[in-house]
Structures are given as structure tokens and as C-alpha cells.
Amino acid sequence: MTLRRLSLQALVLAVLATGLTNAAVAGDFRSADDVLAQFKSEPTVLDLQNMVLEYSKTDNHYVEAWLAASKNSALLPTFEVDYGYDNGYGQDFDYADGTVSSELLSASNVDLKNSVTAKAKWDFTKLVMSSERIRVISETQDIVKLRDKVLDEATRVYFDRRRLQVDMLMNQGDVKTQIKNELRLEELTAQLDAYTGGLFSRKLKNK
């Protein structure tokens, strides 16, 4: 018997054992609250949404921090540094008969100077609105759209998973159906892990 067959048999036995246990208690549920209470140890949908926001770095406090940083950037000055080199010649020449005296040329004064000038400039009008702040606002709007889309999708998968769990609890079905449902449950859990960086499964294990 191959390892693959052994694994399949183990999965079937596990599903059957779960089905027998659930079948024994299925008749004990008197209300929807009794059924949903079976999953109270799992993360709530609000827990999931917080995980998604933290993993995707799209929570409001991130957005507010970016906007604040774009405004405060105007408090930083722009710097200019100029370097000067002066090789000015202090020469006085006396012309005699249209010629320059060689003695005067040899006595010319040569003065070499290096200078560095640094300037800092502030533009306080940018504290009101700057091109950088406009860019951040535009990118923030894109981030908000992405956040809403990811939250909607993660929330949908969360409740698809919960409906499947309830159906598995209330309607056992045959072995083939149970295996199909178990694999589907794993698939939905993996999708939630993709939205949360694996944090959803870690929360399940912790609880």
C-alpha cells in the first residue's frame, strides 16, 4: 500500500470520526446562536479586518502619518553651497612709450583665495500646500481604494468559510462530500492567510 493511499485513508478516517461526533450533537442545537457558539473561539470578522489592515499597512494611522510627514517636510530648508576660487592679480602698470616695465611686471601682486558659502532657504508657503503633499494625497486615495477592496474580499471569504463550517456541522453528507468540504475549508483558510500574512491561522492555533 503506497504512502498516498495511507494518507487518503487517514483523511477519510478523520472525517468519519468528525462526522460521528458532530452527528451525535447535531440534534442538541436549539437555535442559531447554539450553532454559531461552536465557533466563538475563532477570530471574529473584526479581528480579521484588523489583521488585514496591519499586514497591508493601510490602517488609518499609517495614512495620517504619511499626510503629517508630507506637511512637516516643508519645515526642512533647502541648502545651497557655493565654492569660490579667486586668483585676482593686483597689478599696477605704468606705460612708457607704449611698453610695460619689466620691473613692474615682476613686482605684480598675486593673491589666491578660496571661499565657501552655505545658504539655507525656507519656503513656508508649502506648509499650506505643496507638490509633495498633493502627491501624497493622490497616493493616499489609491491606498484607500485598495484597502476597501481587500477588506471587502477578505470579509467575503471569511463568511464563505463560516457558512461552510455551519453546513459541515449540520449536514454531514457522505464521505466524498465530507472530504470535499474539508479541502474547501482549508482553501478558504489559506486565502485568509494570504490576506493576513499567515496571522489568521496563527490566531486559530493560539485560541
Description:
By secondary structure, the chain is α+β, with helices and mostly antiparallel strands. It folds into two domains: 3-67 and 129-206, no CATH class; 78-121, no CATH class. Helices cover 62% and strands 13% of the residues. A two-stranded antiparallel sheet has the order 1-6. α3 packs antiparallel against α6 (131-170) and α6 (131-170) runs antiparallel to α7. The protein is rod-shaped.
In short:
With 207 residues, the chain is α+β, with helices and mostly antiparallel strands. The chain is 62% helix and 13% strand.
Shape: rod-shaped
Share in helix: 55-70%
Q: What structural class do you assign from the helix and strand content? A: alpha+beta
- Largest sheet composition: 2 strands, antiparallel
* Domain module count: 2
- SSE order: HHHHEEEEHEEHHH
Low-confidence stretches: 1-6, 19-24, 103-109
**Mean pLDDT across all amino acids:** 74
Tally of alpha and pi helices:
8
Spatial strand order of the main sheet: 1-6
Number of strands: 6
User: Rg to the nearest angstrom?
Assistant: 38 Å
Proportion of beta-strand residues:
5-15%
How far from one another are the termini? 37 Å
Topology:
Layout: H1 3-26, H2 32-36, H3 45-56, H4 60-72, E1 78-86, E2 89-90, E3 95-96, E4 99-100, H5 102-106, E5 109-110, E6 113-121, H6 131-170, H7 175-196, H8 199-206
Antiparallel strand pairs: 1-6, 2-5, 3-4
Helix pairs in contact: 1-7, 3-6, 4-6, 6-7
